[in-house]
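Hi support team,

I've been running sequence recovery on a batch of backbones for a student project. Most finish fine, but this one hangs at about 90% for roughly twenty minutes before it completes. I'm not sure whether the input is malformed or the queue is just slow. I've pasted the structure tokens below so you can try to reproduce it. Let me know if you need the job ID as well.

Thanks,
M.K.
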């Protein structure tokens, strides 16, 4: 399912799709992260910032069902959320996909496109498109 979603939102060709960075289910990563390509988070990330390389405009952050992030800001082109995120700011230049298993506490989400599955738990102060054109999709 994640690969099909990534094909829609990430212009990388299907045979080129892979993850560059993996945080395993029982791993705890403390510290800021800057990544390129695709970061699969199955574990726990605690830091000030998770962001993609400024040179990589197609990077994708995937927070799986077992994954969690506690940080001040997340700045990525694409994000797929199945797990738990607690942050002040989520800025996704292209796409935010929130799956039904997600549990999110964020003060502000800024993105062009957002898709939220029915059943997702979201506590968000503001969803903004002030920097981008916005598409809102509430799916079942």
């Amino acid at each position: 399912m994640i690969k099909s979603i990534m094909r829609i939102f990430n212009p990388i060709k299907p045979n080129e799709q892979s993850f560059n960075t993996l945080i395993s289910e029982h791993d705890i990563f403390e510290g800021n992260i800057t990544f390129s390509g695709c970061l699969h988070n199955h574990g726990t990330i605690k830091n000030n910032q998770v962001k993609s390389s400024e040179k990589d405009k197609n990077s994708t952050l995937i927070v799986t069902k077992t994954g969690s992030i506690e940080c001040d800001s997340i700045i990525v082109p694409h994000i797929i959320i199945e797990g738990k995120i607690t942050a002040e700011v989520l800025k996704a230049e292209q796409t935010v996909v929130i799956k039904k298993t997600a549990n999110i506490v964020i003060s502000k989400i800024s993105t062009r496109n957002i898709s939220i599955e029915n059943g997702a738990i979201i506590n968000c102060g503001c969803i903004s498109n002030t920097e981008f054109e916005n598409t809102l999709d509430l799916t079942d």
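--
Follow-up from support: It reproduced on our side and the slowdown came from queue contention, not your input. Residues 82 and 101 are 5 Å apart (CA to CA). No action needed from you.
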